[in-house]
Specification:
The protein has one helix spanning 2-18; strands spanning 23-28, 35-43, 49-56, 81-89, 92-99, 106-114, 117-123, 130-137. The protein is mostly beta strands. It has a single domain, classed as Lipocalin (Beta Barrel), CATH 2.40.128. An eight-stranded antiparallel β-barrel has the order 1-2-3-4-5-6-7-8. The two termini are 32 Å apart. Mean pLDDT is 88; it is low at 3-17.
Length: 139
């Protein structure tokens, strides 16, 4: 009976953590397919999710977000909050934004988790008009 309860508790914990996006994630460059940075996603006290660049794996041409149009303009990419205001809705995290520090453009954002991968979709207007990046879990 103890083994059954332990297995059930462990399975439940695995299922609950499966749907979470908190933690560190390795971003992959679309063009070179090389790891570009580590983004740490965290939950604020109001229940929304944010993500900041916690490590750069490739030195950017410009270490600052000079093309950003908001309060991030001119701030260093390292430590930059690129994901803002996501809310959990079922199995996805949506309703927030993601900013590309290279171009300074901000997009609506939806994130879903599939095992040790995040599918991060940035788009303008309709979700059909966007692109998805796959980020890898960092242990």
């Amino acid at each position: 009976m103890r083994k059954l309860l332990f297995t059930l508790a462990f399975s439940l914990a695995s299922i609950l953590s499966f749907a979470q996006i908190e933690g560190k994630w390795k971003t992959i460059d679309d063009e070179t397919k090389q790891a570009k940075s580590i983004v740490e996603i965290y939950k604020k006290t109001d229940g929304t999710y944010y993500g900041k660049v916690s490590q750069l794996l490739i030195k950017p041409a410009d270490p600052n977000c000079t093309n950003c149009k908001d309060d991030r303009k001119g701030k260093p990419i390292l430590g930059l909050e690129i994901i803002r205001g996501l809310k959990k809705e079922g199995d996805e995290f949506t309703g927030g934004t993601i900013t590309d520090p290279k171009t300074g453009k901000t997009y609506k954002c939806t994130i879903t988790r599939s095992g040790d991968q995040l599918n991060v979709r940035g788009y303008i207007g309709l979700s059909l008009l966007g692109r998805t990046q796959t980020w890898q879990k960092v242990n």
